[in-house]
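Anyone opening a protein record will find just a pair of labelled lines. The record below illustrates this layout.
***
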Amino acid sequence: MKETIRIIGIDPGLRRTGWGIIESLGNSLRFVAAGTVRSDDKAALASRLCQLHDGLADVIHREMPHEAAVEATFVNKDATATLKLGQARGIAMLVPARAGLAVAEYSPNAVKKAVIGVGHGDKKQIAMMVKVLLPKAGFDSADAADALAIAICHAHHRQSPAYRLAALAAQA
């Protein structure tokens, strides 16, 4: 008998880190919750990272997911912005790992392909398809919609034979 798996998707950002939680049972997906953890952009970097950490830790403690998925960092033209995004992403990976969750990583193109069918698309397309796939979904930002898309991507990938074999090998 299959069991329901609760997945948290995390879209890391220093200003706004989106999170979205779904439940997956076989091919069936159900919306649970979504939101955005915000940091004070006037605060020092260390304080902002603490705000993200504490906000995500609260969500994980409250919602009790079984697995986590985080969007991989992409490199843009601004090296400083990329470095700051990487630090926020570190928090997004640390918090679920410290809670004992397996953390999967997906590129932005893999997430888009899983949700909208192609590897390129804008935030409006992603939000629209998240609403199609999860009709009861509500989200307060594009970052939260992206986080739900990341969770959906993970739900699809965890069904693959390759993922199952890797999970079995990790348990051994």
Q: What stands out?
A: DSSP finds six helices and five strands in the chain. The two ends are 22 Å apart (CA to CA). Helices lie at 45-63, 79-98, 108-116, 123-133, 142-157, 161-171. The beta strands are 5-11, 16-25, 28-38, 67-71, 102-106.
